[in-house]
Amino acid sequence: MTTPVRTADETPQLEAIARAALPRFRLDPETPITLIHRRENAVFRLDPGGGEPPWVLRVHRLRYRTSTEIRSELGWMEALRTAGVRTPPVRAGADGDGVQTVAVPGAGEARDVTVLGWIEGRSLEEDGSTGAYRLVGRTSALIQQHGRAWTPPAWFRRPTWHVDALVGPRALWGDYAALAALSADQLALMHRAADRVRRRLAAFGCGPDRFGLTHGDLMPDNILVAQGVPVVIDFDDGGYGWYLYDLATLLAVKAADADYGRIREAWIEGYRAVAPLPDAHLPVIETLVMARLLLGLGWMHTRRETVMAQQFTDMTIALACLHAERLLAEEGRTP
């Protein structure tokens, strides 16, 4: 079992930054704010009242995304909205910039803050039907199809999820091998699985028919259905990566689920209703699921002070070990 890491509660400092940011976005400094979750970013709901709809304010995690990367995220979301993929509207600051860097005495380093429209909808996480997973696949295809045709501005910067960004000491969420909760046997298993992932992804390659701009974390809770129309949220991890990684992010948390195969096929069916997906690409799915699980172990290490990491580290280890055994059992049977 993992041992909880005791850290000071930063909520008062984050709330102070959020409140100090309100005038920057032409919002009353007394606007009611409510912390709704904290994973990478601290996310607050704003309720201005007076007939104005709610907003979402994000206080961004330190040193996770640069200001330019966050501006790129906002610009990409706006481009998708123009192309017909619904995303939350972006609220610009009083100076026209959607990213405001805010410092508050006693609250630590300055943080980037953004404000997006609140979406009143039902998360696909509450559904779980074949149709819901088909919709996730369809939405992935729409986002990726847009990325293939879109020319980003020259200043556009988003992370690239190549193999080193997913697995090992340079992984963007952290190195799986640094997770103290892994036993010696589990760590040895992860090393063997990581070697398999590297070899398979190197063989698969990064051609334009399989690697490009994609959401990178399209879980069912990142799609809200509002008035019957899907709205995509949380592009924080969006960037350049393998197109099938979107499916891998979904399947990784379902690795022990009896419905794993149903979910996989529903996503593929939904994707193919919008964009081509060659059969020859499908064998790499299980490799990308393993890459996602290894990346998740790194996240559990670098975010070990968070409640989420303390709650889900043991489960993530169990899923990673299960899938690693499954993947390695294929050794010698697949190229």
User: Number of DSSP helices?
Assistant: 9
CATH architecture descriptor name of the largest domain = Alpha-Beta Complex
CATH third-level topology of the largest domain? Aminoglycoside 3'-phosphotransferase, Chain: A, domain 2
C-alpha end-to-end distance: 37 Å
Number of strands: 11
Largest sheet: 6 strands, antiparallel
* Helix-strand string: HEEEHEEEEHHHEEEEHHHH
Given the C-alpha coordinates, what overall shape results? Answer: globular
* Total individual domains: 2
Per CATH, the superfamily of the largest domain is Aminoglycoside phosphotransferase (APH), C-terminal lobe
List the uncertain runs: 1-7
The averaged pLDDT comes out at: 93
| The CATH class of the largest domain | Alpha Beta
What is the CA-atom radius of gyration, in angstroms? 20 Å
Query: Which structural category fits the helices and strands?
Result: alpha+beta
> Approximately what portion of the residues adopt beta-strand conformation?
5-15%
Summarize the structure.
With about 325 residues, the protein is of the alpha+beta class. It is about 40% helix and about 15% strand.
Overview of the molecule:
The chain is α+β, with helices and mostly antiparallel strands and 335 residues long. The protein has 2 domains: 11-118, Phosphorylase Kinase, domain 1 (2-Layer Sandwich); 123-328, Aminoglycoside phosphotransferase (APH), C-terminal lobe (Aminoglycoside 3'-phosphotransferase, Chain: A, domain 2). It is 40% helix and 14% strand. The protein is built from 9 helices and 11 strands. The protein has helices at residues 11-21, 67-82, 130-149, 163-166, 184-204, 245-252, 260-272, 285-302, 307-328, and strands at 33-38, 42-46, 55-59, 90-91, 100-102, 111-117, 122-123, 211-214, 223-226, 229-232, 239-242. Strands 1, 2, 3, 4, 5 and 6 form a 6-stranded antiparallel beta sheet that branches. A 3-stranded antiparallel beta sheet has the order 7-9-10, covered by helices on one side. A hairpin with an 8-residue loop joins strand 2 and strand 3 (55-59). Helix 5 (184-204) crosses helix 8 (285-302), helix 6 packs across helix 8 and helix 8 (285-302) packs antiparallel against helix 9. The protein is globular. It starts with 10 loop residues before the first helix and ends in a 7-residue tail after the last helix. Residues 1-7 have low confidence and may be disordered.
